[in-house]
Amino acid sequence: MHSNLRWKIPLILLVVLGAVFLAYPLKDKISLGLDLQGGMHLVLEVQTEKAVEAGLDRRADDIKRALEDDAIEVDRLKVDQATARIKILLVDASDMAGTEDRMRTYPGLSKVEISTDGLEAIYELKSDEQEFIKQNAVQQALETIRNRIDEFGVAEPSIQIQGERRILIQLPGIKNAKDAIDLIGKTARLEFRMVNEFISVDEANAGGLPSDSEILEERSENRETGVVTKTPIVVKKRAELTGDMLTNADVRFDSQNNMPYVSLVFDSIGSQLFYDLTSKNVKKRLAIVLDNNVYSAPVIQEAIAGGQAQVTGSFSTAEARNLAIALRAGALPAPVEILENRTVGASLGSDSVKAGVQSVLAGFVAVLVFILIYYRLSGMVAVMALFLNLVLLMGALAYFGASLTLPGIAGILLTVGMAIDANVLVFERIREEIKIGKTVRAAIEAGFEKAFRTIVDANVTTFIAAIVLFQFGTGPIKGFAITLCIGILASMFTAVFVSHVVFDSVQARKKLERLSI
What is the tens place of the pLDDT at every residue in 348-383? Predict the structure, then answer.
């Protein structure tokens, strides 16, 4: 045996057996993409301007509390969302110096104006700070949605940012589309606010609504009739406690009527704040607000220690489960709008799988017939190399956990063509060498050597194009690029290295006088 064959043959066997091990069983190792098994395709747009507004409101609340802690008496603090400005009105002009000192601790705000009487200061949110908030809102929304989907139990989801404020979501194999949309789109901003019991809804509607309060609706549904009742209620705008301090949220059932509710557990800081809140407001109503809807507004009977609370309402078990998932995953930093919602049915998915498999088999068989007729026995080498190419491709896809899509199948078909093209280049070179009178062995060596540069040149340029597609493409384009990249590497190995080893092995066992090519 040729000395080089002693390590080349074991290497080929090792690579092929490794690919088979990685790919077997194929149906368990390679998942099908959205276009093959059905599912949901969503495009969301994060309303980043709402994140900026919320950030400005939070800063205003922080500033007011900080100034009060510094014993600075604030007459009013106004937020102008249109200009992203905060106006601070003081009672005593002598406090302006202390106010400016405190405001220097907020680097995201810049001073616009100080009134001549020293009672008014205007600060605005810097443009770069606004841009940072917007970018962070999109990234945070992405992570929150991913956490929700993971808990929802979708296998192989695809979630990625598109452009500046859009998020592309593909959920293959999902059965309950409505629950998924409700879960993904829910802002899940949980707030505990005090009910303003000093003014009625009628008085508020008549123009007596204080600036620190607003009218929300308490929603309740009759489980027997399905009738939804919305009752107006006046609550404070300021949230005493938010869901940001939750450590867990689970679905529980009422022991009396077996109705589902969501049990909440706060972290240490949240537990203390909740205890302080309930101890200071015994016999007052506390509104539990989720996305500006009041789920319940019970009367605080006593101080609640231990950091536990519950959200009750007229919702089903599935609704309570989705609410618990959303609260555990965290609130979205800003509302999201569904721009595109497409559902691929399971029948369409199975038809796509069938058509894709048929196309691969038809292309594979057509190439085999041609190569065997045109190159005779040497064509068998190309057939074996092509088969190994597909084995290596499946093993690599399984190893990287790639999902197979219709564009991915197109990439496999293109790989088949490129693999055969490499063999054609080699075989034609060998033919040319035989025609000029070289021996079979010399013709084989010269054929592989002279064709190698052309094969590398063609494959490298295609590989670079595939990398660019993977880097800048999305969804299906990435699937096509992945299969093409893996296929190119596999075809280089099989069409050049493996084919050469096969010819050398045959030549080593039997000195060929003629070559069937």
Answer: 566 766 777 787 788 778 888 888 888 888 888 888
Domain contains 154: no
Q: Which residues pair with 343 in a beta bridge?
A: 40
Instruction: Report the alpha-carbon distance of residue 68 to residue 71 in Å, rounded.
Output: 5
Give, for 111, the enclosing helix (H) or strand (E): strand 109-114
Q: Please say which residue of 109, 127, 145 terminates a domain.
A: 127
Phi-psi region of 376 (alpha: psi -120 to 50; beta: other; left: phi over 0): left
CATH code of the domain containing 30: 1.20.1640.10
Same domain, 227 and 302: yes
Q: Are strands 293-296 and 213-221 parallel, antiparallel or unpaired?
A: parallel
Task: For the chain, count helices (H), then strands (E).
Answer: 16, 19
CATH of the domain at 108: 3.30.1360
The total of structural domains in the chain comes to: 3
Interacting residues of 435 by C-beta distance below 8 A, sequence separation 6+: none
**265 token code pair:** 């557990």
Q: Give the dihedral of Cα atoms 312, 315, 317, 323; nearest 10 deg.
A: -70
Q: How far apart are CA 388 and CA 132, in angstroms?
A: 50
CB atoms within 10 A of CB 221: 16
Residue 168 lies in a domain: no
The torsion angles phi and psi of 230, rounded to 5 degrees, stand at: -115, 120
Q: What is the pLDDT of residue 482?
A: 84
Residue 396's closest CA among 15, 2, 11? 15
The tokens of 326 are what? Answer: 């959303």
Q: Measured between alpha carbons, how far is 8 from 500 in angstroms, rounded to an integer? A: 10
The pLDDT value given to residue 111? 94
